[in-house]
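Reviewers of the previous submission asked for a worked example of the structure-prediction workflow described in the proposal, so we include one complete record here. The input consisted solely of the amino acid sequence. No template or homolog information was supplied to the procedure at any stage.
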Amino acid sequence: MSGTPVMDQSLFRYIWRHTRQQQAWILTIVVASMPLYFLALDLPKRIVNGPIQGQGFETAGATQSFLGFEMTLPSLLGGGTWSFEGFSLERLDMLVALSLTFLALVCINGLFKFYINTYKGRLGERMLRRLRYELVDRVLRFPYLQFRRIRAPEIATMVKDEVEPLGGFIGDAYVSPVFLGGQALTAMLFIVLQNYWLGLIAGGVVFLQAVIIPKLRRRLLELGKERQLTARELAGRVGEIVDSIADVRTNDTSNFERAGISSRLGRIFSIRYEFYQRKFFVKFLNNFLAQVTPFLFYLVGGYFAIQGSLDIGQLVAVIAAYKDLPSPIKELIDWDQRRLDVEIKYGQVIEQFAPDGMIDADVQRARDLDVAPLTKPIVIDNVTMVDDTGGKLLEDASITIKPGAHIATVGEVNSGAEALAEALARLHPPARGRILINDEPIETLPEAITGRRIAYLSSEPILHNTSLKENLLYGLKHGSAKPGTKDDVPLTAFDIAEATASGNPLPDAARNWIDFSTAGVADFAELRVRLGEVLKLVGLESDVVDLGLRSTIDTELHDDWSKQILQARAAMKVAVEAPENAGLIEVFDPQMYNQQMTIGGNILFGRARKAAFEADELAENPFVRDLLQTSGLDARLFTLGREIADTMIELFADLEPGNSFLEQMAFMSPDELPSYRSRLSKEHAQSYETASADDQAAFLRLALAYIEPQHRLGLIHDALRDDILAAREQVFETLPAIDAEWPHLREAFEAWLSTDNFIGGIQQVSLTSLTAPILVAKG
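From that input alone, the workflow returned the following structure tokens.
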């Protein structure tokens, strides 16, 4: 459509269109660095020939000019000569001056490289940010049917991983060939100026590297493309297996899927193995050519030096210059390979993100509109809907829906009814016919109107990976970003500048996007009330309250709530201590047996971690068994457990399987009744001393889960309570594992049980570390 810009098919054109000013600047810096690079190559020759070998210092006290120059201007500039005699220095002083100049040039050239590399890196990251944003922007404008043809993991992988190499190349696209090529040409020019034949040797080797190596690397690019495609197919297939795991399990096709994955992995292995073979052969050849050249320099250059046609300083300078030559040549060859590689990847990505029928960008343009309610009929005129294969879902449907009307379209999933609903939500455009809303074709209306006045719930709702509040308010987040919440983070000038340079909107997603008018409220206070009304309307109020009670409050973000909770805690304390509530609430008291807790809970009394002392595993816990034996409770609780089992069997054994009364049975499941009947009949299981370890644990398990007010079997008496309290003291004194891990627990627990803080301990000791709740309601 006219409002949907077409992405550049050429990566270089895309880069130049968005960064031509920055490219021009950095290229100017690159050109400016070349003369200084040439001087850095020339100085070693001057140092060796001059101060070191003594040329120009043959006589005692001889001096040479340092930094002297003479420049004659052309006639077009008025002619004349500009000169500077420089500083006259003796041999040793000249050595120091030239060496310091060489060091200065090294630093300056290093700073040039640092600036150029940093600038192009920043430029590349900007363009990568721009490209990723544009790709996601295009996904948001894909035609709805396109989402049924593509796999979400593949799109996510392309946006996240496959464009990553483009970011590293974008900064190098124009800078690297100029910078590296300039360095290579400067070094080649310097070598030629020193000796013509050595220049020919260096040029010949460079020519071989520039011609042969790229040809050998073309197959590497093809293999790289195949590797990328096969890896993408593998990711898609793994995603299919995860999505269809029910079919795999119910049709016994897991081994078929394993074979398919093995085949795909074998194909990837073959591609990668061939890739590595070719890659390292090319690397070997390139390194060989790079090492042959110094050999020729030593041989040929040494011959010229012996013959007197090349001085030692020139030979040293040539070797030093060539030492710097292979690096830019190699990097240029690498750049060319990366260029071909990223152009292929760019083309693949662009192909996937340019489907037919994309939504006009202007339709989704951000608008701050006061969207009035739809007051005119919705007209569906001869609408025909087809699926992505061309099959008809709905044919020549016509209907007029008046304001306030309630209608229902009946049909199965992927039927005409669902297609019509998608058409009204502007998800699935009709193949023929038209839909008018407010007398305008629905496809021409901005999303600011249809998105705020037409609600659509699919048969497969999605919850976003964020808070429940954000999910509930998601349909209101179409206003423009504005301040007004505690979570506002002010945008820095750097954030704004980089977002603008990258072609992104301002990164203000954390700010307030809620359109209060759509919800019929004025601010956050009214919105909270409205949320409560909606939750109550749909029957979620109690569920949300339960979720809130199980969550932890961030006191830094919600200081006002924390204060209210502390006030409620104080009020709760007063209410619990009120005479009229006596007997309704039983609080923890380390000196009292808590009637509302299990026997096991009374023994441990919140002293043990839940992970180490699960309630249904206390009878097998080594520490608990040793404690029961030491306190003499093991045999008594064993007898109590036998009484519980005998009572349960007497009450429920004659009931038929499936009887509803069996579901009300405590202590054990209906399937365990025969097992306990068998245990009771064993002669050796009549006493704790003669019972097997398994039978001991089985009956102890029943006793430790007993609660007198709940089970009402009359098995708890004063003597047993006293012995349980004595065992509790042993727990406090002899639980080394917990004391070693949480040395502060005893102090926190005692503070929690004190008069002023018996509820306040909820902040000091995690509830998940306790085996019983803070307060236990009787009955």
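Residues 737-779 have pLDDT under 50 and may be disordered. We consider this example representative of the routine output the project will generate in years two and three.
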